[in-house]
Design brief:
Length: about 240
């Protein structure tokens, strides 16, 4: 194959004339002349240098094999690849729901906040998402009545601190007033802002329909701006599916 590619030194009409190129014999002669010019001990010195180079190459080879070579990709110590990059967009989506209760008496909660969310996993430790909530009125112990008491829009981020504990934060807009139709929600002055920050814990409590349980204890940094002033601490419980 090489002969067909480069032709013969004599040349032909279809191949170039390669006469004058160094041959193996000429290279060997040049090496011998250089060794002879170095004196009687030149050959021994060259052999020592070659042996030293071979020893260094052996050390490098052993180091590569020790650190994960042997035909595989050597990993950087303490490097953890982002496993989410190998997943599709839908596989990185996480759906969830949560709920919380607020009450004005010791017998029964008067409202229940039900939320739905969808999150996107940026990496193995972080997830960002959006959601919406609905506040349902439950009435009192004497008269149970289901009413529309509010609605909300949410954004959130969870960042893993250690194992099952996460640093959680988010921004919310809540309409905390009873309404009977969608047109009433267009009164933007009635919406309240909330800035939440706190801790969450994800438990490996799985069911047929859920992948895990999430408990959140959050502090509303904007609670004092609400009229009337709302509770500063929010506790939520939810499920991922």
């Amino acid at each position: 194959m090489l002969a067909k590619l480069f032709g013969s030194p004599s040349g032909s009409p279809s191949t170039p004339n390669l006469a004058g190129l160094q041959t193996r014999a000429s290279v060997n002669t040049l090496i011998q002349n250089q060794i002879a010019a170095g004196g009687p001990n030149a050959r021994e010195q060259i052999m020592q240098n070659i042996q030293a180079a071979q020893a260094e190459l052996s050390k490098l080879k052993d180091k590569i094999l020790k650190n994960g070579g042997n035909g595989s990709d050597t990993e950087i110590p303490d490097f953890k690849p982002n496993e989410q990059k190998t997943k599709t967009f839908l596989q990185r989506i996480e759906f969830g729901n949560n709920f919380q209760f607020s009450k004005t008496n010791s017998l029964m909660p008067t409202t229940a906040d039900l939320g739905l969310s969808v999150g996107y996993k940026l990496n193995n430790k972080s997830i960002v998402g959006l959601g919406a909530s609905y506040r349902m009125g439950l009435g009192s112990i004497q008269h149970i009545s289901i009413t529309h008491q509010g609605i909300g829009l949410r954004s959130y981020v969870d960042w893993q601190l250690k194992k099952q504990f996460y640093l959680s934060g988010g921004y919310e807009m809540n309409y905390n007033a009873a309404f009977k139709n969608i047109q009433q929600l267009q009164d933007y002055a009635a919406w309240q802002n909330a800035g939440l920050v706190g801790l969450s814990k994800k438990l490996n409590i799985k069911t047929k329909w859920t992948k895990g349980t999430k408990l959140s204890l959050l502090y509303d940094m904007l609670y004092h701006e609400h009229t009337p002033t709302s509770q500063p601490v929010v506790f939520r419980m939810g499920y991922n599916f």
